[in-house]
Each structure stands twice: as C-alpha cells, then as structure tokens.
Amino acid sequence: MQSMNVQPQVFPVGGGQFFNQHQMNEPQGNLGNNNPHIFSPQVNQARLLAQQHPVSGEVPGLHLMNNGQDMTGNYILKQKMENVQGQQQGQQQFNVNANVGQNMPPGLNVYQQGAPGLVRPLNSQMPKQMGVTANTPVQANAMMHTMLPPPNQLFIREVWKGNLHSEFSLLRRMIQQYNQVSISTEFVGTLARPIGNFRSKTDYHYQTMRSNVDLLNPIQIGISISDINGKKPENGPSTWQFNFSFDITNEMVSGESLELLRKSGINFETHKSNGIEIFEFAQLMMDSGLILDKSITWITFHAAYDFGFLIHLLMNDVMPNNMKDFEWWVNKFIPNFYDVNLIYKVITDFKQQMQSQQQQQQQPQLTLMSLSDELGFPRFPLFTTTGGQSLLTLLVFSQLRNLSMHKLPNGADFTTYKNLMYGINSE
C-alpha cells in the first residue's frame, strides 16, 4: 500500500547517470525476490485520516465487512487526499489570449509559480539530482524532455451518460493518430481473498484479482491518449474520466472504503443518477478502435486490475478460471501493452544490486506517485483523480523511455517486458 510518508527513491541521474551505460551487461534483478504489488496503483493515502476519524456504525443498505477480515492494506483506492479538490471539474474552454493561470485545469492552480505558465526554468523542472549542467547529449536530451505539456493538454474531460456517445465519437476520430493509450481504474478495493491450494504465487495473485473483478463493479475508468512519441493533441481533450452507474445500496462495499471514497471526491448520488451503464460502455469500446488493433499500444501501471475489469466488461462473462485463459483474452483484445509497474520494479532491483547491503534495508515504494516523484513531476491534485492517474501514467512512461533511450539499466530493451503483467505473468 501507499504510505503517507513516501520517501522518494532517487534514480542516480545527472552526475550519477540515470542509466549507466557501463552497467548494461549486469544481471537483472530477480523479479520474484519481493512480494509483487498485486493491486491497482490508486492506493489512497487517506487511510491515515480514517485512523484519525474511524468510521462508526453501519451505513444502511451496505454489505459491510467485519473489521477483522483483513481489510488492512487491501483498499485499492486512489492517492487523492493531498489537497483534493472534488471531481466536479468543469469542461473549461481554453482561451489562448488569456493568462495561462486563468486557463489551468482544476487542481493545477494550487501550484505557485514565479511567472505565468507551466514552462519553468530547466533546473526547476528536473529531479534534484538532475539540476546540473548537461555535459553529455544524453543528459541534455533528458533535460529537454522533462518539461510538462501545456495546460490545455492537462485538462480531464468528465464523461457521464449524457455525453458518452459524443466523447467516444471524438476518440474514434483521434485514435489512429494518437495510438498510445493509458488506462486507470477506480473501484472499492480488494474485498475477497481466495482460499485453498494454489499452483504458484502468481496463480494466487490471479485468483485474488479474478475473485474481486467478478464480485465488484468499477466506479470510474480513466483513459489518456498520445502518439508514440508522447505528443498529445493540441486542440481538444486527450484525457477522459468515465463515470459509471454505481448504487451503493446494491454494491458490495465496506463502510471504511465508502467513507474514504466520499472524502476523495466521489459523489455516489451523481453516479447513481447520471452514471454510465457498464454494457453500453463495453459496446462503444468494442467499436472505438482502441482494442483488437495491433497498432494501438496500451500503457498501465499495474495491469492486472486495470485489464481485469476491462476484459471482464468486454467479455460480458465471468473471468476465466485460470491465468493462461486470461492472458489469451488480454492478448486478443489488447495485443500490445506495457506495465510501467513491472519496468519500475526492474529498474529498482537493478539499483539495489548496485548499492551496499546497508542501503538495501528499506524496500522502496513501487507506486506511480513515487516513480513520478523520482522523475521530477510535480504533485498536482489532478494527478490523484482516476483520469489524472491515466494521464500521469502516460507522462511517466514517455519520460522513462526518453531518459533511457528505450534501454533499461540491466541492458534489456523495453520490448523485453512488452505484454507482461506485474504479479501475473512477469516472474
């Protein structure tokens, strides 16, 4: 789970070389040394708030779980509680003649700058260890690409049942040019745990995911698009947050996770009255051009749950009983994808091999937010929404690829880890 006290594990960039070319032939770290982070990256840091304000009593109509049923560490909720501004983000029009501060998406205007605009001096855009003079072409290239996209490309389009068809129509027109797609999913948390004997640790992880995907419905799905170089559309939206119909009186949800979701900005009344029907979304997704196409590359941070919910919707059936069948369905609908969580794990394992034993005592946090911290991205509140998580995943992946020149520090190419899901088939 994501801790409130996140200590970024800094990549040795700049003087230390983010990807040391002399270490290309070193052996790769063992992916199985640590227990995989088998959950979605949207881990809610507000659990600390819940400890300060415990939920008392029961909410009528809810299927509450007993507090003793191992709910600690099982909420796959989003990191939304740092200066969260609710999810009522208006679909603002971007005025090119106005001051940039007036055009900022909700959640960006809390970031104080010395001058209008998001284009800060290069050294302020860099991670701390990169704020040095670029002595090599690689360093210069890294500095050039750490700048955030312009504010109009950071807007998140809210999608409800009223504008669902029009937004999918826009997506269909754009997907051939902007064929890199990231996804993030919000749901109530991991409520079910399988019991019995399992073939392997990865089989247990899959059965846990399968049980929860079959039992639960997603609350939101975020989708963000760019081209293969990370460039986003100049005009119009490039990130969407799809809000699904969700009635808490009919869904399986714990009282604690419900409270945390409300505090993070989820308006369940609006989801009940204006939310998108799951099967209507699935039908439009089948006709969107995003799936069943080898020219589309999907990006996710911890693919298991993101793809689990998506495949479950597209199949319109229960999840496959075994991991191999699930992989077959994923490869059918999503022929090309990268799991950034797996790439982050490979980099972290290699770093630990290069460090002394004393420095390896504390295991790093393998979360999207910790990775974005290491790469120098600011913690805008919009990055804690479901749509914002998909946007941040895309930005982080493009940044990693630019810094590494498509090579990981263990000498392997990015494509070595293509179509592998962290915790499912990556060991």
UniProtKB/TrEMBL annotation:
EC number: 3.1.13.4
Gene Ontology terms for molecular function: metal ion binding; poly(A)-specific ribonuclease activity; RNA binding
One cellular component term from this protein's GO annotations in UniProt: P-body
Cell inner membrane is among the record's keywords: no
Transmembrane portions of the chain: none
Catalytic activity: Exonucleolytic cleavage of poly(A) to 5'-AMP
Tagged with keyword Cell membrane: no
UniProt similarity note: Belongs to the CAF1 family.
Protein name per the record: poly(A)-specific ribonuclease
Source organism of the structure: Vanderwaltozyma polyspora (strain ATCC 22028 / DSM 70294 / BCRC 21397 / CBS 2163 / NBRC 10782 / NRRL Y-8283 / UCD 57-17) (Kluyveromyces polysporus)
